[in-house]
Design a protein that fits this description.
Helices cover 40% and strands 19% of the residues. With 337 residues, it is an alpha+beta fold. It has 2 domains: 85 residues; 231 residues, 2-Layer Sandwich (BirA Bifunctional Protein, domain 2). It has a 7-stranded mixed β-sheet, sandwiched between helices. Strands 2-3 form a two-stranded antiparallel ribbon. β6 and β7 form a beta hairpin. α1 runs parallel beside α4. The longest helix is centred in the first third of the chain and has 38 residues. The chain starts with a helix and ends in a 6-residue tail after the last helix. The relative contact order is 0.11. The protein binds phenylalanine (PHE). The site of phenylalanine has 11 residues, from β8 and β9.
Length: 337
């Protein structure tokens, strides 16, 4: 019996616990009802009467010692256990913080603004809810022009509609300032169209215009050539095709040599070697007069381009709807810009 007490004592001295589970195992082994120490207490009745006093004392000491050790280890574990949570394991890999990306439309809008700001264009802004005068009438739209039709325009009430183009900003600026004017007006526009891969009911345009004395078509052409080369590369060519807009005369649509195939012909340019990117022209004198700018003294050019269109060409995006679906798998691809 005495031997056994010694054994258990040294077992207690040597024991150390690294976890609560180990400690609990220790408690069960020694102090539970069927534990080693309880066993000894059971065996106590067999101890010779003359030894009972001595052995009983030792047995009690053993039990106290076991209990003390348990308490001590428990305290320690609780301390370091809570310290564990604060301790940082520097070898763990860091948590990945996802960084947002710029929207491709924002990237391209910024590029366009950068390119034109280098040749003196500054920014102008106007409302998206626009009245008939600024969106149509001042821009020389005939009363029965199809663009005023319900099919193209989201009408609000009375005189108001969602602007169908950023040309309305031209009017707003010219009404309030006299030339020289050299401005860029980026913004969102709305058209009542069925949504498909190639058309949406809202999209973005950048309007540019330059009004001064002696502004000529050659200035327009050089400005746009400069833009095309800066945007799509030095080897880019442009071509102007006659067109019609109520607010410009003459009017043109501009194509660039296909930036995908370099003009050889591919499915993006439909094997023509050219892709259309914008509308432009010399501001119609009637528009200048509508805005109280002397059309005998001043001339000007204007152009308007769809940002989605430029972005689709630049990044070879085939579906316009991707721009407004907020699909992170699409947006993440523009991480580097
Ligand atoms: N506003 C025209 C459009 O939306 C583009 C344009 C702007 C054309 C300026 C000529 C001059 O299609």
């Amino acid at each position: 019996m005495q031997e056994r007490i010694k054994e258990i004592l040294s077992e207690i001295e040597q024991f150390s616990a690294e976890s609560k589970e180990q400690l609990e195992g220790f408690r069960i082994k020694l102090l539970s009802k069927k534990g080693d120490i309880s066993q000894l207490f059971d065996d106590f009745k067999n101890v010779a009467p003359e030894l009972k006093r001595e052995v009983g004392q030792k047995l009690n000491e053993l039990k106290n010692r076991a209990q003390e050790k348990l308490n001590l280890l428990k305290e320690k574990l609780e301390e370091t256990g809570s310290a564990d949570k604060v301790l940082i394991d520097l070898t763990l890999p860091g948590e990945q913080v996802n960084i947002g990306t710029r929207h491709p439309i924002s990237i391209v809008r910024k590029r366009i603004i950068d390119i034109f700001s280098r040749i003196g264009f500054t920014l102008a802004d106007g409302p998206e809810v626009e009245d008939d005068w600024h969106n149509f009438t001042a821009l020389n739209f005939p009363e029965n022009h199809p663009a005023r039709d319900m099919q193209d325009t989201f009408f609000i009430t009375g005189d108001f509609a969602l602007r169908t183009h950023t040309s309305s900003v031209q009017v707003r600026v010219m009404e309030n300032k006299q030339p020289p004017l050299r401005l860029l007006a980026p913004g969102r526009v709305y058209r009542n169209e069925a949504i498909s891969a190639r058309a949406h009911c809202f999209f973005h345009q950048v309007e540019g215009f330059y009004i001064d004395t002696n502004v000529s078509f050659a200035d327009l052409k050089q400005t746009l050539l400069y833009f095309a080369k800066e945007m799509f590369g030095e080897e880019t060519k442009i071509r102007l095709r006659p067109s019609y807009f109520p607010f410009t005369e003459p009017s043109a649509e501009m194509d660039i040599s296909c930036n995908i195939c370099g003009g050889k012909g591919c499915n993006v340019c439909k094997y023509s070697g050219w892709v259309e990117i914008l509308g432009c022209g010399m501001v119609d004198p009637a528009v200048l007069d509508n805005c109280k700018i002397d059309s005998k003294k001043y001339t000007g050019f204007a152009f308007g381009m769809g940002i989605e269109r430029i972005t689709m060409l630049k990044y070879q995006i085939k579906d316009l709807r991707l721009f407004s679906e907020n699909d992170i798998r699409f947006l993440n691809q523009f991480r580097s810009e």
